[in-house]
Amino acid sequence: MASSAPIGVFDSGVGGLTVAREIMRQIPNETIVYFGDTARVPYGSKSKKTIINYSRQIVRFLQSNDVKAIVIACNTASAFALETIITEVSIPVIGVVKPGAKVAAETTKNGNIGIIGTEGTINSGIYNTYLSKTKPNVRVYGKACPLFVPLVEEGWLDDPITVEVAKRYISELMTYDIDTLVLGCTHYPLIRHTIGSIVGEKVTLVNPAFETARSLREVLIHNGLESVTAAGEHKFYVSDGAEKFKKFAKTILPIEVIEPKDINIESFADTLFN
Amino acid sequence: MASSAPIGVFDSGVGGLTVAREIMRQIPNETIVYFGDTARVPYGSKSKKTIINYSRQIVRFLQSNDVKAIVIACNTASAFALETIITEVSIPVIGVVKPGAKVAAETTKNGNIGIIGTEGTINSGIYNTYLSKTKPNVRVYGKACPLFVPLVEEGWLDDPITVEVAKRYISELMTYDIDTLVLGCTHYPLIRHTIGSIVGEKVTLVNPAFETARSLREVLIHNGLESVTAAGEHKFYVSDGAEKFKKFAKTILPIEVIEPKDINIESFADTLFN
To answer: Which ipTM score applies to this complex?
Structure first.
């Protein structure tokens, strides 16, 4: 695999762009092929079986673009599909959960960590699993926040309604004296000000995107895959609504998103009855 | 086609159960095969092309169950896919938009009609099209309410946050002196009390489900397809999360939903690149 090959990054929709942004910042020589599954968003309420099925299709699509590594820039897909995907492809694959858990473990002082994410991510207990390996004596409190993704997609970022919803979701976590809160869904950094205003200054917000980009860089170096030339043109693909995606991407990314393309992701199913 | 054959009813998720409920009430001899596309919900933010693709797969699945007629119990799919589906199958197919528009035209006294629905339904202008044919001199005001479906799916039906969201969406419509408001999404009857409390008693809420069941009955009689024996066991299928669907269905339907089944709806694609 050539070190000039692109990195495949995928998410259920626009949230993964917060991870793509960090990759562009930290390892600017890398070229990204991004896929947002906008036809089937959200992932957070769906079953493990379905998320594995969707992730496999996307990985096949990304591999058809000759990517040298894959970043699952979605907590739900990282929670449900990372282990399976790793065993099925020969290129490096990283998710956002392990990097997020690592920073949370390093950040907490009193050992009380809150995790907010989708139903899928929270119910999987995946942050708990990673955290208990990294730092066995921490206490992890999870809370699913199913309305955050639709609120972000609606564009109500700094909004009194989003504040009310956030208060309801987060107030329970605050009773556990948490000092660290993981934004366990790649959409959530887009409402970090709202979340921050509720938890206050004593709680540190952890955004796994930063650490994910750092992990990616390490993995590329370790595998001799780091790009040594300037990045080519980043490419963006979606399963629906390319124009809408373009508008949203513009507000997140430091670059112009040129012509995102609409593809039929279902055509990347391996069999009709998998 | 035997008159004892079942009716196929489909929706993006649980919303279409409000239509199934009306069918059970009004034509209790009919047996229903229900499909909820819970893996790909919501439909409201997706493109026409994608909704036609999904609807075709579902119609193929329902036809594999030998249904004698199909009800598209979803406003977005009715808006985008009904015309296409009608030309592709030989059994009767009805949507929820035309029946809803008919009642709205009959209900309004001052000619000012509000429509609330998904982005897809509202932007399609479909209620406008039907209403201007039925009653040319009415004025139709549409408003997309993208957060209503996630709020219903979260179960926040009578809730201060839902009231706040509804106020924001609906207040604009109230400035047009509407006397009739169409609940143009099959999820919305589940928050009709909240919506009703905002618009007040002077505005009549129209739920297309009732009129859709009545239209279905007429179509069956017209085609000699009305069941003359007692209904068999209603069957329920979903593309994901059968257990979660069962719990929700319990709160909507007057019957026990016995073992909803999880199927791979993508396997009903006609070609890999349609």
So the answer is: 0.86
Question: For position A273, what pLDDT does the model report?
Answer: 37
Enumerate the active-site residues of A: 74, 185
Class of domain B7-95+210-268: alpha beta
Contacts (Cβ under 8 Å, ≥6 apart) of B94: B69, B70, B71, B72, B212, B215, B216, B219
With beta carbons less than 8 A apart as the criterion, state whether A97 and A75 touch: yes
The domain ranges of chain B are 7-95+210-268, 98-208
B145 among known catalytic residues: no
Chain length of chain B:
274
Percentage of residues in chain A with pLDDT exceeding 70? 98
Query: Taking CB atoms and an 8 Å cutoff, what residues of chain B touch A239?
Result: 50
> Which regions of chain B are under pLDDT 70?
270-274
pLDDT band, residue A178 (cuts 50/70/90): very high
| Mean pLDDT on A27-45 | 95
Give the largest Cα separation in chain A, rounded. Answer: 51
To the nearest whole Å, the CA of B162 is away from the closest chain A CA by: 9
Three-state SS for A199? Answer: helix
Instruction: Determine the residue among A266, A268, A272 to mutate to test chain B binding: the one whose Cβ has the most chain B Cβ atoms within 10 Å.
Output: A266
pLDDT digits over A205-257, tens only? 999 999 999 999 999 999 999 999 999 999 999 999 999 899 989 989 988 88
Of B29, B18, B2, residue with least CA distance to B232: B29
For the domain with range B98-208, which CATH number is right: 3.40.605.10, 2.60.120.280, 3.40.50.1860, 3.40.50.2300?
Answer: 3.40.50.1860
Closest CA of chain A from B254, distance in Å: 26
pLDDT for A155 equals: 85
Per CB-CB distance under 8 Å, the chain A contacts of B60 are none
Catalytic residue among B32, B113, B185, B253: B185
